[in-house]
UniProtKB/TrEMBL annotation:
Domain of life where this protein originates: Bacteria
Molecular function via GO: aromatic-L-amino-acid decarboxylase activity
Protein name: Aromatic-L-amino-acid decarboxylase
Family: Belongs to the group II decarboxylase family.
EC code(s) of this entry: 4.1.1.28
EC class: lyase
Upper lineage: Bacteria, Bacillati, Actinomycetota, Actinomycetes, Micromonosporales
Pfam families, A to Z: Pyridoxal_deC
Keyword hit for Kinase: no
Organism for this UniProt entry: Micromonospora purpureochromogenes
Cofactor field: pyridoxal 5'-phosphate
Length: 477
């Protein structure tokens, strides 16, 4: 017979796990940011099969220290500057722990009323503190929902757009015409993936050219592509505009793009996965100008707003369209609350049926930090990036490769691609920092993205000193 962990044993082991996490955070800055072990090292260190007899939690904790943490990329490390940040925080972890302990499935309102209602209120709270357009609030025809990721948000938006563009026929007969999606050449790869899954095919995505200076979508090029497709008998279904592109944080001009979408009846989805969080600060809201023209919008609190993965906040202007596109009602889910029409069933707003109680971690984060605390976090990131960018600009071996309105700085060595790539290898090889790269205008470019709550001036300064001294070696040959 299985021996379950009783509440007292859980309490004891649980405190030990919390202690372990707190120790991990305390010692994080002293660890190498990434592992230097070759592929297969972790798998080779693990036994071939699970134990026949159960073991205490302490045995697993000991193995975490020897097998797992030395072979991780430490995303919460103060020297982690790669990709975009994927923040977590104490309150987020605790909220998630409560969610795990409750083990509630929030697919329907009826399967956990508070799970649904807290989520609706949290998304309204977020819309309020970011000053998002009224149309996204649950008090009107729109509303918000938590998706696992921006990728899922784009997929769901694409399905809503196909439903609209086909006059509802998509639901019954699938893809029976050539529907088209549009995004800039800088749009995220998840847009192409969504198009493939939705049946448009990757050729169904039209890459729209960008301004070479700002790297933002050119509205005239969007209009030309839409008109060419219409002339060929294709149906423009969705435009995905980006606030804060992944490569360089370029901001597409929403007012012009929104006007074009309105003119042709095309769904506008705005992907602000990373940079959306900036809108909690009034001085950064310029990036969201024109958002009132969007049919849907998303950003990831799990990137830059201190809420652990997974948490993407997704809003639609017309929830009716989305629900119509995605609802399926088998007999075993029928219930009086759903039939009354008075409740939200979030399963109709996403691809899976089941869903975790993710609003809890958001609630814990919003209450712990307060709006003031969230703003301070964003402002710290922006200020640190700016501090770093000033160092880059002042050293004539280096150049900035793009504007840096948020907390990402793109830069390179004037000596060229090979030197820049060698520089990245060198600084990452120190184990003190971790940066990643992109290409801007075809040229190899380093990216430094600030966002860990542990990152302070000293860490950004250390990154610069490592780069500046490695640059001497690299440029000298
Ligand atoms: C990170 C990112 C995504 C993907 O985010 P997930 O939440 O991991 O799916 C999509 N779009 C942009 C602009 C991003 O920066």
């Amino acid at each position: 017979m299985a021996e379950h962990m009783d509440p007292d044993e859980f309490r004891r082991a649980g405190y030990a796990v919390v202690d372990w996490i707190a120790d991990y955070w305390t010692t994080l800055g002293k660890r190498p940011v990434t592992s230097q072990d070759p592929p297969g090292a972790v798998a080779a260190a693990l036994p071939a099969s699970p134990p026949e007899h159960g073991e205490p939690v302490e045995a697993v904790l000991a193995d975490l220290d020897t097998l797992i943490t030395p072979r991780l990329t430490h995303w919460q490390h103060p020297g982690f500057f790669g990709y975009f940040p994927a923040n977590t925080s104490g309150p987020s972890v605790l909220g998630d722990l409560v969610s795990s302990g409750l083990g509630v499935q929030g697919m329907l309102w009826a399967t956990g009323p508070a799970c649904t209602e807290l989520e609706t209120v949290m998304l309204d709270w977020l819309a309020g503190i970011m000053d998002l357009p009224e149309r996204f609030r649950s008090t009107g025809p729109g509303g918000g929902v938590i998706q696992d990721s921006a990728s899922s948000a784009t997929l769901v938006a694409t399905l809503g757009a196909l439903h609209r563009a086909s006059g509802g026929r998509w639901r019954a007969v699938g893809i029976d015409r050539r529907y088209r999606a549009y995004t800039s050449t800088q749009g995220h790869s998840s847009i192409e993936k969504a198009a493939r899954i939705a049946g448009l095919g990757e050729d169904g995505v039209r890459p729209i050219e960008v301004d070479p200076e700002t790297l933002a979508m050119r509205p005239a090029a969007l209009r030309a592509a839409i008109e060419a497709d219409r002339a060929a008998g294709d149906v423009p279904a969705i435009v995905v505009a980006t606030v804060g592109t992944t490569s360089t944080t370029a901001v597409d001009p929403l007012p012009e793009i929104g006007a074009i979408c309105a003119e042709y009846g095309v769904w506008l989805h705005v992907d602000a996965a990373y940079a959306g969080a900036a809108a909690v600060c009034p001085e950064l809201r310029w990036s969201h100008a024109g958002l009132e023209l969007a049919d849907s919008y998303c950003f990831d609190p799990h990137k830059w707003l201190l809420t652990g993965f997974d948490c993407d906040a997704f809003w639609v202007a017309d929830r009716g369209e989305l629900i119509e596109a995605l609802t399926v009602m088998p007999e075993f889910l029928r219930n009086a609350a759903t039939e009354s029409g008075a409740v939200i069933d979030y399963r109709d707003w996403q691809v899976p049926l089941g869903r975790r109680f993710r609003a809890l971690k958001l609630w814990f984060v919003l209450r712990w930090y307060g709006v003031e605390g969230l703003r301070a976090h964003i402002r710290t990131g922006v200020a640190l990036a700016d501090r770093f960018a000033r160092r880059v600009a002042a050293d004539d071996r280096f150049e900035l490769a793009a504007p840096h309105p948020f907390s990402l700085v793109c830069f390179r060595l004037r000596a060229g691609d090979e030197a820049s790539a060698a520089l990245l290898d060198r600084v990452n090889g120190t184990g003190r920092v971790h940066l990643t790269h992109t290409r801007v205008g075809g040229r190899y470019t380093l990216r430094l993205a600030v966002g860990s709550p542990l990152t302070a001036e000293e860490h950004v300064d250390e990154a610069w000193e490592l780069l500046a001294s490695a640059a001497s070696d690299v440029v000298a040959g």
